[in-house]
Structures are given as C-alpha cells and as structure tokens.
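Limitations

Structures in this collection are predictions, not experimental determinations, and the ligand pose is part of the prediction. Treat each record accordingly. The example that follows, with NAP as the small molecule, is included so readers can see exactly what is and is not provided: the inputs are given verbatim, and the output is the predicted complex.
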Amino acid sequence: MTIVQDRSTQLRTLRWGIVGTGRISDSVVADLAACQGTEIRTVHSRDAGKAADFAKKFADAGSTDSYEELLADPELDVVYIATPFATHYALTRDALLAGKHVLVEKPMAVTAGEVEKLFQIARERNLFLMEGMWMKFNPAFILLQEQIARDRIGAPRSLRAMFGMPFPQDGGSRWDVKRSGSTLLDQGIYPVTLAHTIFGVPESVYAAGTVRSDGLDLAEHFTLEYTDGRFAQCASSSQEFADLSGSISGTKGWIVLPGPFWSTTSIQIHAGSWQTIIHAPESVDLDREGNGYVPMLRAVNEAITAGLTEHPLHTAADTTAVFRTLDMIRSAILGGNSTVPKNRV
Ligand SMILES: NC(=O)c1ccc[n+]([C@@H]2O[C@H](COP(=O)([O-])OP(=O)(O)OC[C@H]3O[C@@H](n4cnc5c(N)ncnc54)[C@H](OP(=O)(O)O)[C@@H]3O)[C@@H](O)[C@H]2O)c1
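Predicted complex:
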C-alpha cells in the first residue's frame, strides 16, 4: 500500500465544513486547524448561536444552522461530521450528493448495508470518504504492525482488547437508541477494528451481552475466531471498567498496547530471549501530536489533495468488513441468533 508521505509537497488548501459542535468536534477541529493546508470555512450547528460561538475560534470561519446552506457552498471541499451516529448515514449521503468529500466520525453508520451504500455514492462521484478511525493512524498502532511484520513476536496467534467504562447516566446520545445507543458501535468498534487489522475477517463469531429493554446493548463480550485456532477476545461496556489495554501474542512473544489501546503513545514488546520476553520487555514511547487526531487529519488532507477516493490505511473494504462483523455480533447479542446466550435487564 502506498501512502502519500512527502511532507514537503505543497498542499492545496482544503476548505472544511464542520457539522456538530460537541466535545469530540472541539478536540478534532482544534487539531484540524493546526494541520498544514486546511481552512475551517464554515461551522454548522442546529443552533445558530452555537455555530457562531464555535466558529469564533477560527480565523475567518463562517457559521450556519442550515445544512443545505453549508452544502450549497461551492467553495467548500470537505465536510467533517461529528454528530450522534444514527445521523451519520443521512448527513454523509447528503454531503456526498452535494459533491463534498467526507470524513465522518466512527462509527461511519449503523449497519454494513449503510456503509456499502455510502461508499458506492462516493465512488460514483469520485469523492473521498473515510470513517474517522483515528486509531489506525496512531503512530503506536503503525509501529505495532511494523514490529509484527519484522517477525518480532512470530506469527500472531491471539489478541485481547477491551473498552469498558462506567459512563455517567447523563442523558447523552450514548444512552438514546434513537441517536447513538449501542455500546458495540460506540466502543466495541475499536477492538473489532484492531482484530480485523491484525487477523482479517473472522471465520465465525461468538458473542453474548447485556441488552436494555429498549434494545440498547450496554455491554458485550465476543470472540472472533479464525483459521488454525487463531482468535481475538474482546469486550465493550458502558456499565463497568474493562481493562483498556490490548495485546497481540504470537509464537515468539507478545506486544502490549497500554490503555487506552486505541490512542496509546507507547508499546511494550515482549520479544527476544526468555529473560526479555518475560521479565524485561522493550518499551517504546512516541509523541502525541495535538489531541492525537493530527496524523489522521494530515493523512486525509494528503489523500484528498492527491485525488484519492479512499485512504489506503482505512479503505472502503476495511470499513465494510468491520461493519459486517459488528452486524454479526449485534445480531447475536440482540437475539437474532438463538444459539448465543443473552441477558435482558
Ligand atoms: N474519535 C474519537 O475520539 C471520538 C470520541 C468520542 C465520540 N466520537 C464519535 O463522535 C460522534 C459524536 O459523538 P458525541 O459524543 O460528540 O455526540 P453528541 O455529544 O451526542 O453530539 C455531538 C453534536 O452533534 C450535534 N447533534 C446532537 N444531536 C443531533 C441530532 N439529533 N442531529 C444532528 N446533530 C445532532 C450536536 O451539535 P449541535 O448542537 O451543534 O448541532 C452535538 O453537540 C459519535 O459518532 C461518536 O462515536 C469519537
């Protein structure tokens, strides 16, 4: 895979529209504004005052409470969507139909079918589309893959990754099935994406979970099974902590991604002699750029400038495959597969 890496290349300035003014938008857009070759052109909020307040942080940024007006701007190149994920499909579709490139927060949509449709629209219009899966652009995540490719831990055989936190019951979108309710889509997407990156598409899935009476999955644990006995053991929860670290084990050692594994700035490599494998792992520390989103945003900017319609590090095929696995896990825990145990609360 070839990634555009020549930092000396003069980037054309891309004009970005921002949709949603919540906490994540705040962090990501601060990093976006710091990237070379970007201009925050317009901020959209459902509330005109909030849009104007957010826009004040960026020189010359305009604001609007009309999504149609944002998309009608012929000078706008790219839209960043950071809203509750049940809204992602329609907002992304409309932006693509208006001829804009799109970076949409994880999860890109709710089902694999929606994801496929969005990539089809993007392909037909020769537009860039990517899910904001920042983990895949994190230098520690890239180093992990380099170390595996260098045979440091031999052939990867098993993986463990969890994302569990007792989030406050604040009435936010994560607790509302109509807006974003799904712990699997919100948190479980990270371990599933990690497993897909290391092992590819699983042969089978075992999953069980805790589901609220209105269908919101509050917690789940799942095993993704691969040929030759390889497996990934994962969990996500909005109710309790589940150790946020991850690890990949192989025939010659293992690598730990300290928690939170999706945004870690270090890795621990248990490799070499028995002594170093077990008692003295090598620790590698890396810098974090901005709030951690800069590597992904820079890569998106470079890809769009280079005329790519998807990014080689997180392609349409990668994203769709992850959503197919998420669909399988969800159907198991929500009861579509009666052979999988489930709890109802
Ligand atoms: N990459 C990361 O590190 C990371 C971290 C956390 C969350 N996320 C993802 O970011 C997305 C947003 O999460 P969040 O926790 O920020 O969500 P949120 O706080 O519930 O909503 C974000 C913003 O979306 C707008 N919004 C709310 N409800 C809406 C609706 N029904 N229709 C259209 N817009 C609506 C609001 O902005 P206005 O009031 O201005 O319209 C709100 O501030 C999710 O997909 C989440 O998974 C990513």
